[in-house]
Amino acid sequence: MRAYDIIYKKREGQKLTKDELEFLIKGYVEGDIPDYQMSAWAMAVYFQGMDAEETADLTMLMAESGDMIDLSPIKGIKVDKHSTGGVGDTTTLVLAPLAASAGIPVAKMSGRGLGHTGGTIDKLESIPNFNTSLSRDKFFDNVNQHGVSVMGQTGNLTPADKKLYALRDVTATVESIPLIASSIMSKKLAGGADAIVLDVKTGNGAFMKDFDSAKKLAEAMVAIGKNLGRNIAAYITDMNQPLGNAVGNALEVKEAIQTLKGQGPEDLTELCVELGAAMLQLAGEFEDLEKGKEVLRENLKNGKALAKFAEMIRAQGGNAEVVEDLSLLPTAADTVEVKAEKAGYISEIKALDVGLAAMILGAGRENKESKIDLAVGLELKKKKADRVEVGDALALLHYNESKNLEEAKAKLLSAFTITEAKTKKNKLLYEIIK
Ligand code: URA
Ligand code: CA
């Protein structure tokens, strides 16, 4: 077999066999196939696409290129949740204890990630003494005993995807549905879940800006899951403004705690209830989504979800008193309001610019080496469709250093569009693909 022939075949729009894909992926990971041939192949896929079978084959090959985690020491059906990413997405922090409070095991491995804020693991590390680097055995024990554990990713997961994604990033071949779908799904399969709930974001702050491409991606990922015998559902949800109000690490932990007390922002609460019910359904706990949602809403009110979070924190060595005393979390030295310069209704909040404002304050990493400040970030005081008067606070910035403060303020202000005409809120959940 020759890489040249495989590239040629895809360029001509033909279907590749599993053997051909295996030759390509193995050869690439082992360094026998150079970047330039892999780039040409990726560009051919970008233009010619891949069918469901090819996409599933590619996914499995990438999943098997590194460690495959075996979650079988954990009892029950393990459901993983994955979001395609947005701004201020605090869902995992809420959803892990919330779903566990309704009786399903939640074994979540999360990343740190580059972005406007840290990843779930960075956020959790703002809880004093919380340990995110557990051994596999300790992780399994914690889930079996307490129903939930969240730890940092370890091991060598999907090296083929790492290498290919980095290559696509510099060769204008990221935006291909089969390549994105196989990239995301290979990581989920290597993570060992029995069933998967996908939160596919659409909107100005999402990877997929428009609904149609989000739907195509959702359909492609669901097809891969089904092809490979996994229970799977994809929820297409709104990212036309940040989710919840907090953007920042410790600030999002605070918001998660408030949400687990039933006092969180409406959009974040609703999304967690929707995705949680999907997890309960796929785990076979509640077939009926409405019943699942009812139980989850109840657990946000009766303290069970919060108690589960405290239990998880304690089991990972952290100070569980934070759930009652938010002042135990890192706090920024100062805060300042960003005020509206005109009156009207908020018609748009560009989520990416809000994320950038938080990053300018130090909440995120610009590159792998940068250090993040867990205390800083921002809280939105107004959301889409709200009425504002001149001088009303749009957001409260939490900062430690004033050197980039003016830049952050300007970025935040530029994220808001205020119009005279009344505006409408977006729907939160657009469609469920199964
Ligand atoms: N996220 C991924 O993990 N992979 C892609 O290809 C695109 C987004
Ligand atoms: Ca948030």
From TrEMBL:
GO terms for biological process: pyrimidine nucleobase metabolic process; pyrimidine nucleoside metabolic process. It catalyses: thymidine + phosphate = 2-deoxy-alpha-D-ribose 1-phosphate + thymine; uridine + phosphate = alpha-D-ribose 1-phosphate + uracil; 2'-deoxyuridine + phosphate = 2-deoxy-alpha-D-ribose 1-phosphate + uracil. GO terms for cellular component: cytosol. Its EC number is 2.4.2.2. Keywords: Glycosyltransferase, Transferase. Residues 345-419 form the Pyrimidine nucleoside phosphorylase C-terminal domain. It is an enzyme of class 2 (transferase). Homodimer. Catalyzes phosphorolysis of the pyrimidine nucleosides uridine, thymidine and 2'-deoxyuridine with the formation of the corresponding pyrimidine base and ribose-1-phosphate. This is Pyrimidine-nucleoside phosphorylase.
